[in-house]
Amino acid sequence: MTNTLPTTLTHLGTMPVAEFIRDYWQQKPLLIRQAFPDFQTPISAEEIAGLALEEEVESRLVVEEPDPNNPMASAWRMEHGPLDDNVFDGLPASHWTLLIQAVDQIFPTVHKLLNRFRFIPNWRLDDVMVSYAAAGGGVGPHFDYYDVFLLQAEGRRHWRLGQMANATSPLRDDTDMKILTEFETSADWVLEPGDMLYIPPNLAHWGVALDNCMTFSIGFRAPSHSDLLLEFSQAISEDLAADARFTDPGFPPQDNPGLIHASAIDQAAEILRSLLDDKAKLAEWFGRYMTEPKRLAPTADEPSDGLRLAAYSRAAYIPTEQGAQLFINGESAECSLALAQAICSYVALEPSDYSLDDQALLEEAIAEGWLTDERG
Ligand SMILES: [Mn+2]
User: Fold this and answer.
1) Does 293 share its domain with 216?
2) Range of the structural domain that residue 71 is part of
3) Ligand 1: distance of its center to the CA of 265 in Å?
4) What confidence tens digit (pLDDT) does each residue in 264-308 have?
5) How many A from CA of 131 to the centre of ligand 1?
6) The last residue of a domain, from among 192, 220, 248
7) 61-90 pLDDT, tens per residue?
8) Into how many domains does the chain fold?
């Protein structure tokens, strides 16, 4: 079982992982020249273009009409996939970009790249988005609510970092692309193949292709407080009995029938607090929620190196007294700690990783397609 991660990873340069997490993660940007030395893109521009035609792939085409007098005043057009197969014939020579989500879940060679980011929890990783751009192409000055590593895969891209932005930052009102109306350049770099830029949430950034260029965005998921509250309360409310009700024995006498006494608010708060404070239910729900997959189907051409977690699967675990509570693709099950750890590390399972008690779970996981079983 390869569960121990090295403390220094090549793609962080000479920086120890602990230092990156302490000083940069969620805080400030980091440029790592030749994070992936001699990097060669594992997928071609043609393969990316082909994905944009497929119905089950999430893709977008962005075309920019630049304003020669003002780089902030371009006109923007966005089209969601699947695209028509003749769409590429009608494209201008420059200023367009194609964005494909979750390419790691389609191409095992791209999924392999994620193994270099396992120092960040699996359940925080979202997907690898690939953008392919003609010279001048980009998605304009914007910010995201999540961390991203931008790995330059082919060609060169000019990146500008801007200011910290938030939900109140003014956006262009003539497009739904969430483009900032203001951008104060705080740093700018040209990235070449193998270079990588880490950008924390909320930091404005603006990437422009200098030539035909491919960039991999390793993105993370960060659920909004609104989603956490809505989704968890939805999940627990399903288990609540209809006779669990607001009660008010001995309520304080009041002169006006319209008065809502402070004690009633206190009681409502107490009911909600006690429901939300159920740590066991929260843990169970959180594991399922954070492992819900983006795509629902396994890929066809997974490498056959044994029984292991399928590339599209998401897995996480919580240690328990008996072993572990394992979450795969939004489902949860009990198993041994060794099995949970082996599955979550995406490596081929060794017989020593599971016990007799784990057999039923393994068989179910194979039947569901969560694990690939293509041994020899
Ligand atoms: Mn971005």
Assistant:
1) no
2) 10-220
3) 43
4) 999 999 999 999 999 999 999 999 999 998 766 666 566 667 888
5) 11
6) 220
7) 999 999 999 999 999 999 999 999 888 888
8) 2
